[in-house]
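Action item from last meeting closed. Structure (450 res):
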């Protein structure tokens, strides 16, 4: 009886724990890592800080829902010499896109959107689009880059063979402002002042596509996912910032993730770029034109912390569940992490297909990576990066504020080099399942006593 009473007290204590509590930690060896080898992440980041690649970084690695590595190194701001802190806030740029992907999948599960729906179903102005075809001898930029085509590029248009779909936008196969002539023409209808998604997105109907929909992969850095964010607004009836907060951030306990923070927030990391002439880090205080206070850019408008973004990634790793809530079905997450744009499609690198808003490692050998096949994630233009390895139950998050592609692969590999044990069953069960287990144990004792 005393034991049963103790179980009841423990169950009551568990119920009093906050559902949005911080992610539990573990000694590396408890989740199959080598402490000594994980320290190589620290060494890797320090080499970059010393070399002036970036001012500082936060790195986080979790396995089986428990944090095994979480460090802040370098400076948040060089001029003031403010040390980097673990709860530093970063502009995550294109790591906003997976949030949009989850939002769209939520609308699909509610029957409001289909992957095959033409985008014009929700934004009529995007019907009957044209495709730009460069004239012979015109020095245009190839589709797929971030820059636009040459200012003097001449072209003619042909009708799109089919409408662009929700899937096309999620997989960057639409050709909408994806680095070629479309980018040049998009400047003519650029965002102005305090315009919102509702003001701007319909104007993209006058912009020709870079290629016939579905025929290649080319990154739509902003327009594609801004359009998807507008679709969410149309079908949900609320601004995308409000949708993301109420449906994703608040339920996940992502208290430091937002589009527009309070002015002067001291936890926001200063952004730097490497000077082409000096080779030194140069401060960048200017904001992108889409950060106007009312435009919720699905392509790159969010700010977040490493631990906040872990909550989002862990939810995906858990098959769409977190904090006792179901955000997506396991099948929806599986669809997001499946290859929809294969690495054989023009524009994709070998070994890396593309899913619904994220890259997917379909061949680790061809990609030259130590990540498991099926790993998925994405990155941000200012130096942020994350991935999820479903096979090994790992989430990795890297946060900096200076563009640097080299460290992404090195960080991924350093984590995988430190892996020395298999993916054991997680002991971090949800509060509710733990309580259920305790009551079951108590029931068993009562049965034995009877």
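Sequence:
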């Amino acid at each position: 009886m005393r034991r049963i009473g103790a179980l009841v007290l423990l169950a009551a204590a568990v119920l009093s724990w906050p559902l949005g509590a911080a992610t539990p930690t573990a000694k590396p060896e408890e989740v199959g890592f080598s402490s000594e080898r994980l320290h190589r992440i620290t060494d890797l980041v320090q080499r970059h800080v010393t070399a002036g690649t970036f001012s500082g970084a936060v790195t986080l690695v979790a396995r089986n829902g428990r944090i095994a590595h979480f460090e802040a190194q370098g400076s948040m701001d060089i001029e003031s010499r403010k040390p980097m802190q673990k709860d530093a806030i970063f502009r995550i740029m294109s790591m906003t896109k997976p949030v949009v992907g989850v939002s769209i999948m939520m609308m699909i599960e509610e029957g409001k959107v289909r992957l095959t729906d033409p985008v014009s179903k929700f934004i009529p102005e995007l019907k009957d689009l044209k495709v730009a075809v460069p004239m012979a001898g015109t020095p245009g930029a190839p589709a797929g880059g971030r820059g636009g085509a040459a200012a003097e590029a001449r072209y003619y248009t042909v009708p799109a063979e089919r409408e662009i779909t929700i899937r096309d936008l999620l997989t960057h196969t639409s050709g909408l402002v994806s680095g070629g002539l479309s980018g040049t023409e998009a400047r003519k209808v650029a965002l102005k002042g305090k315009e919102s998604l509702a003001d701007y997105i319909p104007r993209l109907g006058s912009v020709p596509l870079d290629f016939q929909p579905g025929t290649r992969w080319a990154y739509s850095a902003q327009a594609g996912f801004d359009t998807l964010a507008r679709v969410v607004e149309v079908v949900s009836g609320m601004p995308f910032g409000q949708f993301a907060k109420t449906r994703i951030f608040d339920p996940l306990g992502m208290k430091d993730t937002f589009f527009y923070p309070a002015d002067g927030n001291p936890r926001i990391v200063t952004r730097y770029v490497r000077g082409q002439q000096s080779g030194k880090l140069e401060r960048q205080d200017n904001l992108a034109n889409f950060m106007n206070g009312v435009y919720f850019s699905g392509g790159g408008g969010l700010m977040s912390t490493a631990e906040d973004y872990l909550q989002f990634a862990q939810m995906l790793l858990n098959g769409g569940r977190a904090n006792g809530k179901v955000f997506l079905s396991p099948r929806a997450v599986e669809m997001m992490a499946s290859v929809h744009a294969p690495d054989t499609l023009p524009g994709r690198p070998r070994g890396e297909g593309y899913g619904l808003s994220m890259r997917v490692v379909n061949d680790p050998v061809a990609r030259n990576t130590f990540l498991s096949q099926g790993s998925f994630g994405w990155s941000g233009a200012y130096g942020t990066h994350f991935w999820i390895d479903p096979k090994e139950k790992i989430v990795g998050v890297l946060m900096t504020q200076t563009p640097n592609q080299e460290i992404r692969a090195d960080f991924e590999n350093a984590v995988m080099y430190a892996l020395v044990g298999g993916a054991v069953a997680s002991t971090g069960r949800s509060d509710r399942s733990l309580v259920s287990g305790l009551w079951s144990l108590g029931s068993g004792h009562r049965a034995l006593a009877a």
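Note appended to the action item: The longest helix spans residues 431-449.
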